[in-house]
Amino acid sequence: MARLIECVPNFSEGRNKDIIEQIVDEIRKTENVKLLDYSMDADHNRSVVTFIGEPDQVIEAAFKATKVASELIDMTKHTGGHPRMGATDVIPLIPISDVTMEECVEYSKILGKRIGEELNIPVFLYEKSATSRNREDLAEIRKGQYEGMAEKLKDEEWKPDFGPAELNIKSGVTAVGARPPLIAYNVNLGTSDLSIAKKIAKAVRAKTGGFTYCKAIGLEIKERNIVQVSMNLVDYTKTPIFRVFDTIEREARRYGVNVIGSEIIGLVPMQALVDVADYYLRLENFSSDQILERKIFE
Q: CATH fold of 4-178, please?
């Protein structure tokens, strides 16, 4: 069995396709790495890229993509709906086959050290790679966003794990870490009232009494004049999509608002969608072994 890890870097650019193509080309050109998906979001001004490969090659591809992002993205000019702190905002490494989470932690340290030393970008280790409890949650590291990072880095508690202890003005700060697979899932609401999206996000996210494995924020989608509950479901086996969607729909009705759609950003495990179908169709004795494509490619 091949040793494989997945990497899902997020870049703070979602409007200029030429910039993202140049970043993604670095991944395409790396041997033994396969680009699986990438998507741009103009309102968030953010792009999510997914690729997979042998660990050493994935680290190389991630570094080269980060280097190009540091050359092409200027954080002093960046605006967008999604919280962000760097040109390459976050780089998660996910074990896929014949690689342990502990090994991914070590690979994240190798990558983070190289970014810090060679690109002069402050790097925080997060999730399973975190060096302290307050660095496990990406939201805590990112608090203050790019605009607040120069001041935050002066605090000894927020000394970076790698790189300079002062803000890289152009490229900002990057988080690197190992984590399990997650689902980036957004639910769109038929209103422009951001306060409603924020109240619903508060109802479903773990930190404020919601679902244990759900992180959520309320965002504006100005292009469509609507708002969105934007989420990361960090363990879909324990907090499934359908349960969160149902709750959001019920909460929205309290405010006289409809759910007008939802979206998955990047890739999603097939079982997560099978679970949704099983729930809503009330399937009896259904097994994922009944999926045609699974049988074909076994």
A: Formiminotransferase-cyclodeaminase; Chain B, domain 1 (3.30.990)
